[in-house]
Structures are given as C-alpha cells and as structure tokens.
Amino acid sequence: MNPMRTLQVDLGARSYPIYIGPGLLEAEGLLARHIPGRQVLVVTNETVAPLYLERLQAALGGFESDTVILPDGERHKNLEVLGRIFDTLLEHRHDRETTLVALGGGVVGDLTGFAAACYQRGVHYIQVPTTLLAQVDSSVGGKTGVNHPLGKNMIGAFHQPRCVLADTDTLRTLEDRQLCAGIAEVIKYGLIQDREFFEWLESNMDALLAREPEALAFAIERSCHDKAQVVAADERESGQRALLNLGHTFGHAIETGAGYGVWLHGEAVAAGMCMAARLSARQGWLAEAAVERIEALVRRARLPVGPPQELDPARMRASMAVDKKARDGRIRLVLLRGIGRAVLTDGFEEAELIAVLEGRDAALGTAG
Ligand code: NAD
Ligand code: GLY
Q: What domains can you pick out in the chain, each with its CATH number?
C-alpha cells in the first residue's frame, strides 16, 4: 500500500497538491514534476541543512541547483535575511523560470515564499516543510512574509506554491518543544470549525506526543484538509480565512513583546487561543466548562494557557492594535461561540479584554 496521502488546494489555475507521507524526500520524480524550468534555488537553514539537504539535492539531480543556507530562528525572519536570498539568485543569474524550494520550518517557508513573490515580480516556489507547524499550517495557503520590529508578519504577500511536500519522516528529528508548538495549530482547527477533530485530539493527544505515525499522519491530513477548504473559499482573507487567526492577535503581541524567538509561535498561539476562549466566556458567549476543556487539552500538549508574567498588559494591548485584521483603528478578534464555532468580531467589551490581558481569571504562562 502507498502510504502517501494527497490533498488538493482548489484555486483554479493556481491549484496545487499537498503530499503527506514518509520517505517523500526520496520519492522518485515527485518534486521534479512540479519544477517547470531548469534552475532551482534551495533555501534552508543551518539546522535543517545537515539533516536533509543532501537528500533533497539527490532528488534535484537533473537541475541546475544552487543553495542558500540562512541563520536559524524567528529573529532572522526579516528584510535583511530576505536580501541574502535575492543576492544568491542574482549572483547565480536565476531567471524568471527559476523555482525556489523552501526546506525547513515556517520561518524558512515564509521567507522563501516572500522572496519568490518578489523576485523578478514573481517566480515559482515549492514548500518542503520539516516541522509539524509548517506541515499543518504555514506551508499551505500562500501567506508569505517577514517580521518588522514593530509587528509580526507585517510585510508580505500572498503567493501560492506549486506543491507542498510534507515528508513525515523529517518530524523524527524535531525537538519535543517544537512538536508541541505545532500541536497548537492542530488544536486551532478543531476549535475554529471542526469539533469532531477537537474530540479526536482529546482522545489521541498522548499518541501525538508519542509521535505515533498513524496519529501524526491523521492530524496532518485533517489539518491540511481543513485549511485547504478555508483557503479555497477565501484565498486573500476577505472573510472566512481570518478565522484561521484564532489566538494570533494575542499571540503576535506575545511574540513581539517577549522578543522574536523567546516564545515559539505555536506557544504564543496556544496562550492566545486560551485568552480568546476566556474573553469569549467573559462575554457570555462560551461556557466556562468549554474554557476548561480547551485549557486542559492545551496543557496536555505541554503548552502555555496564558501570557508571560513579565509582559505588561498595557504594552500588550498596544501591540495588539498592530494587526492586519484591525479596521479604522479598532481591533477585531477571532472569538468562540462554542468549540468548533469561531467568529470574527469587534463586538467585545474593552474592559473584558483588559481583564483577560491582566490575567485576572487565568493562569500566567511559561514557555519552553
Ligand atoms: P521554525 O521555522 O523556526 O522551526 C522551528 C525550529 O525547528 C528551527 O530551529 C528549525 O531550524 C528547526 N527544524 C526545522 N525542521 C526540523 C527538523 N525536521 N528536525 C529538527 N529541527 C528542525 O518554526 P515553525 O514553528 O516551523 O514556524 C513558525 C513560523 O511560521 C513563524 O514565523 C510563523 O509566523 C510562521 N507561520 C506562518 C504561517 C503562514 O500561513 N504562512 C502560518 C503559521 C505560522
Ligand atoms: N495561518 C493563517 C492563515 O494561513 O491564514
């Protein structure tokens, strides 16, 4: 039996497949069939390169292939490091038919996708995600970009890849803390639109933490399926896609406030989702029992349920205003009307938001 699962992101002429399974880096011809020209630039980082670059290069035997190895970490997801990708493309005279291949986690994927969106006004790229977070979320949907010191992911573009190749074997070398950060985004899908998946997670969290291949493959496939549906319905986030940002307005403020990389993105999102649940409960939209269920699942995934103790609530509130969902100076948040029922709204009380930021009824968090 072929253990590879294939999903499709339906976007008309820009549709593309997501391949999920073990051993895909070595799968004969799989990558090559999505590369239209002869030139390829592999973008990776100093941690992932020694682990997987050789295998990827073997799959690119017939192409003129160059490589750029970036420094590792969220703090390097910026315009300066983006410039290194352009330097390599120009030094090696890559033309408009070139294909960039992102080999790594969400940081490499977001940087590479943005470079592909900009270089010569847009070239092809492929996502080869190697973290759980990237396999369930960041590699799918075409959001690309970099951070600014004043705001997370504030500079970027929508640019869809030609395919996503998620080799689940690569997750074997991932640190436990990174695996848990990825589980945060998996829980997110259950919370926003897939109650059945949330319940599956309640029953299978131990299997995920133990990296049981069947459980991991199911969680990746279900997450990508849920995300692909939303992206197909609202590619450029004029409505429904904003729901995928559950926990992110709080989370981005945590990441920016704590310093990029101190809290992992998934950790900040986990705390943010619990804060969104708390605020929903304070508004009377979500039962206290549901908040407790959400926090229990997040805790089981070894993730924080509240913001860092040292983060000043007023500073966090100011940082939340720098958000792509804000309109006319008013922030909009993704909140919950139930497990599996997320809504985008500005109809919350400011005083209740402040109470949540001050952690008046929730535990404060510690990352890592
Ligand atoms: P990351 O890219 O920093 O990777 C986490 C760490 O794991 C890094 O140190 C990396 O080098 C290492 N690593 C990667 N693959 C490995 C492997 N197989 N074995 C061992 N180590 C490995 O972080 P991430 O969690 O993958 O991604 C977070 C980023 O993704 C954030 O910048 C976030 O904003 C972005 N993101 C983007 C989207 C989107 O739609 N574009 C969605 C969610 C998150
Ligand atoms: N991670 C949110 C989105 O892709 O829209």
A: 5-173 (3.40.50.1970), 176-357 (1.20.1090.10)
CA of 138 to the centre of ligand 2 (A): 7
In terms of Cβ atoms closer than 10 Å to its own Cβ (0-12, 13-18, 19+), residue 46 is exposed
Q: Which is nearest to 268 in space by CA: 164, 160, 147, 158?
A: 147
pLDDT over 60 (residue 363):
no
Residue with token string 């073997």 = 58
pLDDT digits 0-9 by tens, 144-183: 999 999 888 999 999 999 999 999 999 999 999 999 999 9
- pTM of the predicted model, to two decimals? 0.95
Closest ligand (CA of 113): 1
- CA-to-CA separations, 240 to 31, 132, 233, in angstroms, rounded: 31, 24, 8
Pairing between strand 143-148 and 164-167?
A: unpaired
Q: CA-CA distance, 287 to 296, in Å (whole number)?
A: 14
Catalytic residue positions?
A: 121, 143, 185, 227, 237, 241, 245, 248, 252, 265
In a 13 Å sphere around the CA of 164, the CA atoms on its Cβ side amount to 36
CA 142 to ligand 2 centroid distance, Å: 9
Q: Decide: 174 in ligand 1 pocket, CB within 6 A.
A: yes
141 CB within 6 A, ligand 1: yes
Has residue 187 got a pLDDT over 70? yes
- Distance (Å, rounded) from C-alpha 137 to C-alpha 223? 7
Please identify which residue in the block is written with the tokens 């895909």.
24
Quote the DSSP letter at residue 350. H
Reported as a single tens digit per residue, the pLDDT across 219-276 is 999 999 999 999 999 999 999 999 999 999 999 999 989 988 899 999 999 999 999 9
